[in-house]
Amino acid sequence: MWEAAAIIVIAAGAFFWIDSLRARERALAAGRNACTRYGVQLLDETVQFARLRLARDEAGQLCLRRTYTFEFSDTGDNRRHGAIVMLGGELQDLQLEPYKLQ
């Protein structure tokens, strides 16, 4: 009995870990695309996990809402902040800190 429960917990943990890695990779791709689109530089080529919540998607199904933060530079010598919200595996929101256009 305990062995079956342990296997279920380990399998659920592995599924959550793999799902989180996929969501992070999609968030990183969205951040790269946004930085390219707006002509800014994605710093450190990474996103950092910030928050995990439960939320409902457009169909009303319960899924994980993950928020990632990242830094970008508009001039090359400063750091500005951005955020990416992933709902399940899909991009829900992307925000960039305001900066002056050159």
General description of the model:
With 102 residues, the chain is of the alpha+beta class. It has one domain. The chain is built from one helix and five strands. Strands 1, 2, 3, 4 and 5 form a five-stranded antiparallel beta sheet that branches. The N and C termini lie far apart (65 Å). The relative contact order is 0.18.
Secondary-structure blueprint:
Elements: H1 2-38, E1 41-42, E2 48-56, E3 62-73, E4 80-87, E5 90-96
Antiparallel strand pairs: 1-3, 2-3, 3-4, 4-5
Main pleated sheet: 5 strands, antiparallel
Low-confidence stretches: none
Q: Helix segment count?
A: 1
Structural class: alpha+beta
Describe this structure in a few short sentences.
The chain has 102 residues and is an alpha+beta fold. It has one helix and five strands, in the order αβββββ.
Keywords:
elongated, single chain, alpha+beta, 102 residues
